UniProtKB/TrEMBL annotation:
Enzyme class: hydrolase
GO cellular component, one term: catalytic step 2 spliceosome
UniProt keyword Transport present: no
Full-protein positions shown: 373 to 1033 of 1074
Keyword Transcription regulation on entry: no
A GO molecular-function annotation: RNA helicase activity
Annotated ranges, domain Helicase C-terminal: 214-387
Domain of life the protein comes from: Eukaryota
Gene Ontology biological process: mRNA processing; RNA splicing
Organism: Tremella mesenterica
Identification of the protein by name: RNA helicase
Length: 661
């Protein structure tokens, strides 16, 4: 233990920020707001809170808070710092992320997502238990971080003893300083080795394939050093992992060992540790990461970076009022950050899977801040509940489009959260208690009218995890898909999700059951935790949890009360294979001049790609291939969906037919 403690101290002292420890503490004592800029991996996130702790900022039960845009980063950094301080995670050092609180009365260093700190304003508007706040990874410009800027700037005025650190990778520092009334900038010079850039000659049609090829080339021809590959999400990471494993298996003993370490938001925390384990001599590690590895977490030992040039983000169109998850090209600033990850331990190489021309001509210079490309209903509801009435004139670092704010007002009004004067209603106040989208909180509260809160809570909790629920290993995919089919309910995907959870509950939440039914145990456990928390919040806002088992319509009504904007209707065309009479009841009206007995049939066979139109703007959308509505005959006329994803087409994920409600 002695030896380990020593080496941890040595590691801490080897970080670039360490040389500036005392100077930093002096600057913090002198200035209420300080912008700290340093290269990724300098030690900002792990060291700054500890320096403040060592300098006495946590005396008398006060806390130091440090925000992170991503929950994986909050968890992993807190674990690391607990380790460095020789204490157990959740004691002196803890973290708080949505639906998971790993802190205690003893916690003095608290890592949390920016969204969680925002929510703390609801219970303690002055954040009176904090002596210092570090708004970390400020350059990421997430929606919550941007809103936090305005709020912490405000409380700093009447809490002169509060210290604020705005910490950022080497981007945007001037802008932050200007926003905080010309706060000083503390620049920690980084150590950075040169990185050689390589581009592809032609655009790559399939970047996963290209990435796997590049990994193998590096592995077989390049000197030692780990590889970091940037992908856009869990499915891509899993596909790449499988592809790599197969290829490595085929190569057998001909090549040295390749350790594959994935990292993404939903990866269980005990598996996250794998990316930090030192690579054994003779082997090479390849980390398959989402954007999280761009600046939020640093993996030591990376010498090669592979950058396909894409990121998955949420885009909102205020004209249509629709958000969708989209895979988009990254910005040049982001590409530079990614490449920089290769030059931390020595000279490195970055392989960009796009052309030099594309880099120069097709990428935007900077990533557009989230506040300018996302739905703001949640934020508006939050600001309203904090008593900030003039949302349009809130002190934003960059103003969101006025149109988006107006859309949010419209939605909140339609949901009944705001009245016609734009004031928060009692319903709105209750909705704000829930850390979920206003459309979901409306559905939860509305379910009390139909006495089916029990079922709605389960469905909503399942929706939060629905992306990672089903286990579909490649070698047993047929079995898995067959097992999953058993859960399908005529009420649609929402009821299928409900059915899965209830059967698991009947099986005493067992792991064995998950194994037999090809479900991800960890995801279901998380669903249960989320559900418990939402149920607790129901109690707080006095929603009585009643149950209405085996009934579809009331549950559909409750969900529709929140999700009426996400409804679409089929656009039918005709073809000739099935007798028309089957569909008659569903298309009366549409058929007036066709006549009964005709051989015409509906072609809105959703498995053949028949589309649906959104009610608001006649935009075409399609049922996602993972939906249980695929192949349903006759195809439903009206569908309510949970979210849109844009791939080759705009797909609706998690759909329910709402015929007859
Ligand atoms: P910055 O915030 O400036 O980017 P960090 O404080 O995150 O820098 O990282 C400092 C060092 O701590 C890095 O060398 C990083 O690899 C290490 N580190 C951070 N988290 C972990 C972890 N969970 N396990 C092991 N090492 C970690
Ligand atoms: Mg950091």
């Amino acid at each position: 233990a002695e030896k380990k403690a020593m080496s941890i101290q040595e590691t801490r002292q080897s970080l670039p920020i360490y040389e500036f420890r005392d100077e930093l503490l002096e600057a913090i004592a002198e200035h209420q707001v300080l912008v700290v800029v340093a290269e990724t991996g300098s030690g900002k996130t792990t060291q700054l809170p500890q320096y403040l702790h060592e300098a006495g900022y946590t005396k008398g039960g006060m806390r130091v808070g440090c925000t992170q845009p991503r929950r994986v980063a909050a968890m992993s950094v807190a674990a690391r710092v607990a380790d460095e301080m020789g204490s157990r995670l959740g004691q002196e050092v803890g973290y708080s992320i949505r639906f998971e609180d790993m802190t205690s009365d003893k916690t003095v260093l608290k890592y949390m997502t920016d969204g969680m700190l925002l929510r703390e304003f609801l219970t303690d508007p002055e954040l009176s238990t904090y002596s210092a706040l570090i708004i970390d990874e400020a350059h990421e410009r997430t929606l919550s971080t941007d809103v936090l800027f305005g709020l912490v700037k405000d409380i700093a005025r009447f809490r002169p003893e509060l210290r604020l650190l705005i910490s950022s990778a080497t981007l945007n520092a001037q802008k932050f300083a200007a926003f905080f009334d010309d706060a000083p900038i503390f620049d920690v010079p980084g150590r950075r080795f040169p990185v050689d850039m390589f581009y592809t000659q032609q655009p790559e049609a399939n970047y996963i394939h290209a990435a796997v090829t590049t990994i193998l080339q590096i592995h077989t021809t390049q000197p030692k050093g780990d590889i970091l590959l940037f992908l856009t999400g869990q499915d891509e990471i899993e596909a790449t992992e499988e592809n790599l494993k197969e290829t490595m298996y085929a190569l057998g003993d001909k090549v040295p060992e390749l350790i594959i370490a994935p990292i993404y938001a939903n990866l269980p925390s005990e598996m996250q540790a794998k990316i930090f384990e030192p690579t054994p001599e003779g082997a090479r590690k390849v980390v398959l990461a989402t954007n999280i590895a761009e600046t939020s977490i640093t993996i030591d030992g990376v010498v090669y970076v592979i950058d396909p040039g894409f990121v998955k983000q949420n885009n909102y169109n205020p004209k249509t009022g629709m958000s969708s998850l989209v895979v988009e090209p990254i910005s040049r600033a982001s590409a530079q950050q990614r490449a920089g990850r290769a030059g931390r331990v020595g000279p490195g190489k970055a392989f960009r899977l796009y052309t030099k021309w594309a880099f120069k001509n097709e990428l935007l210079q900077d990533t557009i801040p989230e506040i300018q490309r996302t739905n703001l209903a949640n934020v508006v509801l939050m600001l309203k509940s904090l008593g900030i009435n003039d949302v349009l004139n809130f002190d934003f670092l960059d103003k969101p489009p006025a149109e988006t704010i107006i859309r949010s007002f419209e939605l909140l009004y339609a949901l009944g959260a705001l009245n016609h004067k734009g004031e928060l209603t009692r319903l709105g106040r209750r909705m704000a208690e829930f850390p979920v989208d206003p459309m979901l909180s409306k559905a939860i509260i509305n379910s009390e009218n139909y006495k089916c809160t029990h079922e709605v809570l389960t469905i909503i909790s399942m929706l939060q995890e629905s992306g990672s629920l089903l286990y579909r290993p490649k070698d047993k995919r047929v079995h898995a898909d067959k097992a999953h089919k058993n859960f399908i309910k005529p009420g649609g995907d929402h009821f299928t999700l409900l059915n899965i959870f209830e059967q698991w509950a009947d099986a005493n939440y067992s792991q064995q059951w998950c194994y037999e039914n090809f479900m991800q145990y960890k995801s279901l456990v998380r669903v249960r935790d989320i559900r418990d928390q939402l149920a607790g919040l129901c109690e707080r806002v006095e929603v009585i949890i009643e149950s209405l088992p085996n009934e579809i319509i009331p549950v559909q009504k409750a969900i529709t009360a929140g999700y009426f904007y996400n409804t679409v209707s089929a656009h039918y065309t005709f073809s000739t294979s099935v007798p028309l009479s089957i569909y008659k009841s569903h298309i009366s009206g549409a058929l007036d001049d066709k006549g009964e007995g005709s051989e015409l049939t509906l072609q809105a066979r959703i498995d053949k790609g028949g589309g649906y139109r959104t009610t608001k703007n006649n935009h075409s959308v399609y049922v996602h291939p993972s939906s249980c509505l695929i192949g349903m005959q006759p195809p439903p006329r009206f569908i309510l969906y949970y979210e849109l994803v844009l791939t080759s087409k705009e797909y609706m994920r998690q759909c329910m037919p709402i015929e007859g409600t």
